[in-house]
Specification:
By secondary structure, the chain is α/β, with parallel strands linked by helices. The chain has 14 helices and 13 strands. The two termini are 45 Å apart.
């Protein structure tokens, strides 16, 4: 897979693989139970994507051979796994622990069942870092065959680790300091039916993506020299289903999600371009709350941010990437975006998410009370009467059903008045007031960032 730069980096280093002098070996050859001179080896540095994947593989797949036992030395790393109780897109996974092997020499089998070895070690003296004393770690993989055996095996591990099914999706976050996409979670996918949106909205985006993924569409893009990527802007009321729909799209089309955090203090234009160039195939690139990055005069809203407005435009133009990625930008405040950011070619489709309309209220009632669809009109009337001219988002509507999870349909309808009274944020808020509150919150955030830097 040509987009895996970890594989490319050590394949480019092949001339150094067979060193003639022990002083050039990144290990002590006298400590190994096999002839190093007849071996091919690859050094994998800590901080690369494949480093963590291989250590996890060795924790469960090491074998006993030639006096070596199965792995008994372990470390662990925090990982994210599906959690269907959290609906936030970037934190929809609960924290879990995955074992990785500790230091030592381990044997394992390649794709053909032949024995390979992996040496996990520290090199040199301890060094000081921002987190205290640290050691330099590396991982060396050995085979008696050609280096392609190692490359193919590592590619296989990466493919397995990144595989996405319709039941879950992988989350990747760009590691700006080490410049690679690190898998940070395996999350439970939303079913498309569970996302209650107006049918016209849902059909529009599903049909558009389905058409974009057709082979003839790809041929059209390449024939006319157009970067093969599709970009969407999800905008509108908060809590209206933007994040939920992204989760459902990932599951429906069996795609991973790659988050780009433009306000990361280590993210620069160069790092952003590298991130785009190294995007996984079959991924959805998400830039949440894009309005929080730049003001209308194109200056950074976050002081420590190094990404420029022009750097972001280059990224959205598809520079360096044409593997069929789908970009989704989200915002609650489209009117605060620079027109250049969302012009045709950078944003292909704009989808508005409004407060809940009657169609959604009826559908949500049917989803939670399928045995009482005849009462949907009564529930809708109770909601409408209580709200008056105010609006309710689907997140708040969902909250009503959660609070009534053990209630009868009649009890749920009767509870509407009290529950809405308790939801203070349902008080009428004009667009001007919402914008002013957002501006005040941004000023507070700038002050906090400035204090942290000082």
């Amino acid at each position: 897979m040509s987009d895996h730069t970890d594989i490319q980096s050590f394949e480019n280093a092949l001339p150094c693989l067979r060193a003639n002098k022990y002083s050039r070996y990144p290990f002590d050859p006298t400590s190994l139970p096999f002839d190093v001179s007849s071996s091919t080896y690859v050094e994998i540095s800590k901080g690369s994507n494949v480093y963590d994947i291989l250590l996890t593989h060795l924790a469960s797949k090491s074998i006993e051979i030639d006096g070596l036992s199965k792995a008994k030395s372990f470390s662990n790393m925090t990982f994210s796994s599906p959690d269907d109780e959290d609906d936030d897109l970037s934190s929809c996974c609960k924290k879990d622990i995955k074992n990785t092997v500790g230091l030592g020499l381990f044997a394992f089998s390649d794709l053909q069942g032949e024995v390979m070895y992996a040496l996990h070690q520290t090199i040199g003296d301890p060094i000081g870092s921002n987190c205290g004393i640290d050691f330099y770690h590396n991982l060396v993989v050995f085979t008696q065959k050609d280096v392609s055996v190692i490359s193919n095996f590592l590619k296989y591990l990466i493919e397995q680790a990144e595989a996405t099914s319709g039941l879950s999706y992988k989350i990747f976050k760009w590691h700006s300091r080490h410049e690679y996409w690190r898998m940070s979670g395996d999350c439970l996918a939303r079913t498309m039916d569970s996302v209650i949106l107006p049918e016209a909205v849902k059909s529009k985006i599903l049909n558009d993506i389905s058409r974009f993924l057709l082979p003839e569409t790809k041929t059209f893009y390449f024939r006319h020299g157009i970067p093969y990527r599709r970009s969407f802007l999800f905008y509108g009321a908060p809590g209206a289903g933007k994040s939920s729909l992204i989760q459902a799209i990932a599951g429906h089309f069996k795609r991973s999600i790659s988050f780009l955090q433009l306000t990361d203090k280590d993210m620069s234009d160069t790092s952003l371009l590298t991130a785009i160039q190294q995007l996984k195939k079959g991924t959805i690139v998400v830039l949440e709350d894009i309005d929080s990055c730049f003001s209308k005069d194109r200056n950074n809203k976050i002081q420590h941010s190094k990404v420029t407005f022009s750097g972001l435009l280059n990224a959205l133009d598809g520079v360096g990437s044409s593997h069929g990625q789908i970009f989704i930008l989200t915002t609650n405040l489209r009117d605060q975006l620079d027109p250049a950011l969302i012009r045709c070619g950078r944003v292909d489709v704009q989808i508005e998410f409004t407060h809940a309309v009657e169609e959604q209220i009826i559908k949500m009632w049917g989803a939670f009370y399928p045995e009482a669809t005849h009462l949907a009109a009564d529930f809708t009337a109770a909601i409408t009467k209580k709200l008056g001219e105010a609006k309710i988002n689907t997140a708040s509507l969902h909250h009503i059903f959660v609070l009534n999870m053990h209630s009868t349909p009649e009890e749920a309808i009767a509870s509407v008045d009290k529950i809405i009274d308790d939801l203070d944020f349902l008080n009428k808020v004009t667009a001007e007031e919402a914008a002013e509150r957002a501006k005040e919150a941004e000023e507070v955030k700038k002050t906090e960032n400035k204090e942290e830097e000082e």
